[in-house]
Design a protein that fits this description.
mainly beta; 16 strands
Length: about 325
């Protein structure tokens, strides 16, 4: 399906030409503040062409990333219904909902990861994950504070469910949290060419599809010294690339739009353990197909699924388009 180029494509091409001359194009002072952009009462919606390895084969699907600020209860670890009643217990969270849908033969997978970070410093507070497919469904919740990580896992597999805890690793980062950190929404996560080694908590979808226990791995993350020009279904952009190499034999890359609002344009994970077929499970890639900002919670009427076109996403068949079966 051919899609029109993103409206910023021409600007990105000019910016890349300027970068080639060594003139920086990201003017931090000219960007909107975090508060003016993310507290405007709307959500950022981004659609992605998505691929993931499942049962040893590459599967094609689609993904949606919904990013929004909301009040969050520190004690209950959920969205606060009445934040003004208990302001000392309420913080502003930046929430990222990542929805991944893909087909495996006769049946499909529908997964969702929710990441909650403090909007003030992007420290992690909670990650929840669900997976539904024809064999059953799974729900996992991670609650994070200074004492560590508390995991509650409910699975249709006998040996997987239960409650566990994990000590928090100093300077630890969740792989799911990287979807926020590398965007540099309050300033760059790493300087150009900078590298650091961190304890990494592998993503919820990797743990699910590869049946891995909750455990830290060592990882290095490095930002490219120079920007790159990349083309995705949404258009052509100038991007900063972050590379991640993990001690569990994986390599990942995130290409982040250099100009505001710093969308994640593409991400890709692969296994370096080529001889181990199981290691390829949940290796995924995605490319931005479209983005917009909307009060999507008000767009639930029949006919409003047309907004999905701006995200490059395909809606489910509407009732009027499903043929009636003759008896």
């Amino acid at each position: 399906m051919n899609r029109p180029l993103h409206p910023r494509s021409a600007i990105a091409a000019i910016a890349f030409a300027i970068l080639a001359l060594g003139v920086p194009t990201r003017a931090h002072a000219a960007d909107p503040t975090f508060e003016s952009h993310w507290q405007d009462g709307r959500a950022e919606l981004a659609g992605y062409d998505y691929r993931v390895t499942r049962y040893g084969e590459s599967r094609r699907g689609q993904a949606a990333m919904i990013t929004v600020t909301e009040p969050f209860s520190e004690s209950k670890r959920v969205k606060a219904d009445h934040p003004s009643r208990n302001p000392s217990d309420t913080v502003e969270a930046l929430k990222v909902n990542m929805v991944r849908d893909f087909q495996t033969g006769i049946y499909d997978y529908n997964t969702m990861t929710s990441i909650f970070v403090r909007s003030s410093d992007f420290s992690l507070m909670k990650v929840s994950f669900s997976s539904a497919e024809w064999c059953g469904h799974v729900y996992e919740e991670l609650l994070i504070d200074r004492s560590g990580v508390r995991q509650s896992l409910r699975s249709y597999f006998e040996g997987e469910g239960g409650d566990r805890s994990l000590q928090w690793a100093p300077n630890g980062v969740s792989e799911d949290q990287l979807l926020v950190l590398v965007r540099g929404l309050r300033g760059d996560y790493l300087r150009p060419g900078e590298k650091r080694t961190i304890p990494l908590l592998p993503s919820a979808i990797l743990r699910r599809l590869a049946h891995r226990p909750l455990a830290w791995v060592s990882a290095t993350i490095e930002r490219g010294a120079k920007p790159e020009k990349i083309t995705v279904p949404a258009g052509s952009f100038v991007a900063d690339r972050y590379r991640v190499r993990t001690a569990d034999s994986r390599e990942g890359s995130y290409w982040v739009e250099r100009s505001h609002p710093r969308h994640i344009l593409r991400w890709a994970w692969s296994s370096t353990a080529a001889a181990d077929r199981r290691a390829s499970e949940a290796m995924e890639s995605a490319e931005l197909a479209g983005s917009t900002r909307l009060k999507y919670w008000d767009l639930h009427a029949n006919g409003q699924e047309g907004y999905l076109k701006s995200l490059g996403l395909a809606p489910l068949p509407s009732p009027s388009s499903v043929p009636t079966r003759r008896r």
